[in-house]
Design goal:
The structure holds two protein chains of two kinds.
Chain A lengths: L1 H6 L1 H23 L17 H4 L7 H32 L5 H7 L2 H4 L2 H14 L6 H25 L3 H9 L4 H30 L2 H6 L6 H11 L3 H32 L1
Chain B lengths: L3 E10 L2 E11 L4 E5 L6 H9 L6 E6 L2 E2 L10 E4 L11 H11 L4 H14 L15 H13 L5 E5 L7 H18 L2 E6 L2 H7 L2 E6 L2 E6 L1 H6 L4 H6 L4 E3 L2 H5 L7 E3 L5 E4 L8 E13 L3 E8 L3 E8 L15 E7 L4 E2 L3
Parallel strand pairs in B: 3-8, 3-9, 6-7, 7-8
Antiparallel strand pairs in B: 1-2, 1-4, 4-5, 9-10, 11-12, 12-18, 13-17, 14-15, 14-17, 15-16
Classes of the chains: A mainly alpha, B alpha+beta.
InterPro entries (chain B): AAA+_ATPase, ABC_SmlMolc_Importer, ABC_transporter-like_ATP-bd, ABC_transporter-like_CS, Mo/tungstate-bd_C_term_dom, P-loop_NTPase, Transp-assoc_OB_typ2
Keywords (chain B): ATP-binding, Nucleotide-binding, Transport
GO molecular function, one term (chain B): transmembrane transporter activity
Chain lengths: ~260, ~350
């Protein structure tokens, strides 16, 4: 018995750890099918009601739309800017490089509550005002840091000899970047974009300070929680989870198919 | 006119002088090796010919054209890198096609040429694989095919065999030499392995501390080393200086004599006019299987190492023992005077 136990200790540990991580997600999925009253806390029976009418609670789909608008815009801009910064920091030696390296971490280290409050006063002072534009600008700001860190790691692991080889094979700077550097760094850029979107979509504190009268999805859920979160929120949460899973899965299938096609 | 002319080439990195002003002519179709220890400047010279480094001073011409500051993609030279530098996200076929593609060769034509190049290095069956699925030796051949498919005037090889095991290395040395002969392309080969350099080169350029010590055929650099460094870097050599040099009729300048060119005679031996001899005490006899090494402390003040090929069983071959007074004898034309 004890030998079986010591032999399988790692497996048992892994099972417990995975269960610990996944249990809240199971809970989210299960309660999207709850026949809930005002408060979706007690299990009252199985129904497709919430899945059939996801936009029924007032404002929920509008807030979701806002979150997507902010998320997609800030992901694109932050990924673009962050990737360029990552290349500059990873590739070139310039005056102020180590200072930049340090400063880029600051938005990650600053408490969000403080950041959110100061951003609001800044936006009011420069006449941008609170709203989705202010929220998007703020999201781009903190997403850039994460993009830089993610992409820089990939740039640093890239063998500079590969770019030399491309130039040796008559590729100019642009061709080298497009056909060798970019494809090799792309997985890092993709991961950074997903991370940026997740951070933006998920953000509550900074958003809540700066969104003014409009709501993003996290704000909707927070406001709703005072009265009782409708099961539709669980539906949207489940959908996000499924979409993320599908994206990862599709990425792996495409990667494998590419390999299979090549060999 | 030489295919490549290098004049007064200098390159420093910060306070370190990597190449301290070298001048060299490389002829069309020759297999020339830049040989030297690490940090001697040989790789930097290669990288300046390829266009990866900008020289501080000096001029490089290829054919009629000055290429000193041209970018790599405007030079009719290609490089085989030490660690191959195959593109990991492209198949072998795509790797070999890469240069043809940037040169805008039509699709069908570049596929044909690439396959021909892959076939010429006997790897047609791996054309659809990715580089990480190949062994080191296979990757090495593909790196070669990727460069050769472009038919450059000059192929630069930066320690291309360094990562291979000994047996594969020797196979590739023969293979490289064959390809170079058949393609008639100038090869500039960088290595720190003197045996590899001797085996493959038409000419060897010996580098040390950013300077060229000597240029010559393998025989010239071995038989007539110009400097003490060359004498010591290519094989082993006995250096006689001062009194020892004068004792064999030299001017006092240093003399280099290879251990295998010296034989041992009893001290009663009368050397002929074509021979030099030094008398001394035999202090050490070391049997190494194929060879036996003798160490003689010459009276004129030199430690002389003698290598004797064991063509007889050692038991039938014992003419001398440690403590004997002996003569170290060699033919005068086997010794050479060296500077510094």
């Amino acid at each position: 018995m004890s030998r079986w136990f010591s032999k399988n200790l790692i497996r048992i540990y892994a099972a417990i750890a995975i269960l610990y991580i996944l249990l809240p997600i199971f809970y989210t999925i299960a309660f999207s099918f709850n026949d809930a009253d005002k408060r979706n806390i007690v299990w009252r029976g199985f129904t497709f009601e919430a899945w059939l009418n996801p936009c029924e609670p007032i404002g929920i789909c509008e807030s979701l739309g806002n979150s997507f608008k902010v998320g997609i815009t800030s992901t694109i801009i932050a990924t673009l800017l962050g990737t360029m910064i990552a290349f500059a920091l990873g590739r070139y030696n310039f005056k102020g490089r180590s200072t930049t390296n340090l400063l880029i971490f600051l938005p990650m280290a600053t408490p969000e509550v403080v950041l959110g409050a100061s951003l609001l006063s800044m936006f009011i002072n420069i006449n941008v005002g609170a709203g989705l534009v202010a929220v998007t600008i703020a999201h781009i700001m903190f997403c850039i840091s994460f993009v830089v860190v993610t992409v820089k790691a990939r740039v640093a692991s890239l063998d500079p000899k590969l770019e030399e080889a491309a130039r040796d094979l008559y590729a100019n700077e642009w061709e080298t970047f497009r056909r060798v550097t970019l494809p090799l760094v792309a997985p890092g850029i993709g991961a950074a974009a997903l991370l940026a979107f997740a951070l933006s979509f998920d953000d509550f504190i900074i958003t809540n300070f700066n969104s003014g009268t409009v709501n993003t999805f996290p704000e909707y859920v927070w406001t709703a929680s005072l009265r009782g979160v409708p099961p539709q929120a669980n539906v949207i949460g489940t959908l996000m989870f499924v979409i993320a899973l599908a994206l990862v899965f599709a990425g792996q299938v495409i990667g494998k198919r590419k390999l299979a096609k090549k060999s | 006119m030489a295919l490549i002319q290098i004049r007064g080439l200098r390159k420093t990195f910060g306070s370190v002088t990597a190449v301290a002003g070298i001048t060299l002519d490389i002829e069309s179709g020759e297999f020339i090796t830049l040989l030297g220890p690490s940090g001697s400047g040989k790789t930097t010279v290669l990288r300046m010919i390829a266009g990866f480094e900008n020289p501080d001073e000096g001029v490089i011409t290829l054919g009629e054209e000055e290429i000193t500051h041209l970018p790599p993609f405007d030079r009719d030279v290609n490089t085989v890198f030490q660690d191959y530098a195959l593109f990991p996200h492209m198949t072998i076929q795509e790797n070999v096609e890469y240069g043809l593609r940037t040169r805008k060769v039509a699709k069908a034509e570049r596929a044909r040429q690439a396959l021909e190049a892959i076939t010429s290095v006997k790897l047609a069956h791996v054309a659809d694989r990715l580089p990480h699925q190949l062994s080191g030796g296979q990757r090495q051949r593909i790196a070669l095919a990727r460069a050769l498919v472009l038919r450059p005037k000059v192929l630069l090889l930066d320690e291309p065999l360094g990562a291979l095991d000994r047996q594969l290395r020797e196979e590739m040395q023969i293979e490289l030499k064959r390809i170079q002969r058949e393609a008639g392309i100038t090869f500039i080969f960088v290595t720190h392995d003197q045996e590899e350099a001797m085996r493959m080169s038409d000419r060897i350029v010996v580098f040390n501390e950013g300077r060229i010590e000597q240029v010559g055929t393998p025989e010239e650099v071995y038989e007539r080393p110009a400097t003490r460094f060359v004498a010591g870097f290519l094989g082993v050599s006995n250096i006689l200086e001062g009194e020892a040099s004068r004792a064999v009729g030299g001017s006092g300048a240093s003399i280099s004599i290879r251990p295998e060119r010296i034989r041992i005679e009893p001290d009663s031996y009368k050397s002929s006019g074509e021979e030099s001899a030094l008398v001394g005490l035999l202090t050490e006899v070391a049997y190494l299987g194929a060879n036996t090494i003798f160490i003689i402390e010459a009276d004129a003040g030199a430690r002389i190492s003698v290598t004797k090929l064991n063509q007889e069983l050692p038991s039938q071959n014992v003419r001398f023992a440690t403590g004997d007074r002996v003569l170290a004898v060699w033919r005068k034309n086997h010794a050479s005077e060296i500077s510094v």
